[in-house]
Amino acid sequence: MHQIAQDPLLRVEGLSKRFRSGEAELVLFENLSFQVGKGTMLAIVGQSGAGKSTLLHILAALDRPSAGAVYCANSHVNSLSEDDAAEFRNREIGYVWQFHYLLPEFTALENVAMPLLTRGQALSTATQEASKWLRQVGLENRGTHRSGELSGGEQQRLALARALITKPQVLLADEPTGDLDGSTGEMVFELVARLHREHQLTSLIATHNLAFARRCHRVLRLDKGTIEEVAPESLPA
Question: Which domain holds residue 164?
Fold first, then answer.
């Protein structure tokens, strides 16, 4: 993939996260600064425990940093009130976790429609839009199935549709293929890449899979509390 040079949609300045543990203070990361241009597909790699998930949580206003600032889509993210942070996430962010967090009592169609329903959209409008998204992720024939009746790969595709139905600018994906076998993970990664292109997303993907990271525009490695950019082609295929 070629880098798409545009103004940064996301700007991180001097970001630190520390945790208190009794008398001790654990520094997860310190003084992270980077920018992500609109349209970029960026991988964040690093060992388990390096802070990749916490970093994504801070970018999505799900957690607050100990120091530093996050600016995204004209919002100073870490200064938002809880209500404003919820609105920011609903408007700008699509989030996919390693575990899908689908609602088991609802059908696939209802799960995808849920973000629009919580916005107050009419049921008919929300389900019509959800049907379009089921088609986009290849699950148009599974709309009446409950999430537990779907395979792991289907559940993750459904989670992607749910994340993107609100037309966010930013997709944050935390190990989206981590629970999947090799061929299913490949299929989900290909779907993420296609949706990224088709919907002009800015995507940040935390992943252990260096072969997937290699196929992104940029790669940031989080290690021992610092972040460094590495060339995607330097990673193993």
Answer: 8-230
User: How many independent structural domains does the chain possess?
Assistant: 1
Q: In what order do the strands lie in the sheet with 218-223?
A: 93-96, 170-174, 202-206, 41-45, 218-223, 226-230
Q: Which residue has the tokens 């600032």?
A: 69
Q: Is residue 167 part of a domain?
A: yes
CATH number of the domain that residue 122 is part of: 3.40.50.300
Rounded CA separation 153/38 (Å): 28
Residue 14 in any domain: the answer is yes
pTM as predicted = 0.89
Q: What is the pLDDT along the chain (237 residues), one digit of tens a residue?
A: 444 445 788 999 999 999 888 888 888 899 999 999 999 999 999 988 888 999 999 999 889 999 999 999 888 988 888 888 888 888 889 998 877 778 888 899 999 999 988 888 899 999 999 999 999 999 989 889 998 898 888 998 999 999 999 999 999 999 888 877 888 889 989 999 999 999 999 999 999 899 999 999 999 999 988 999 999 999 887
Residue 180 lies in a domain: yes
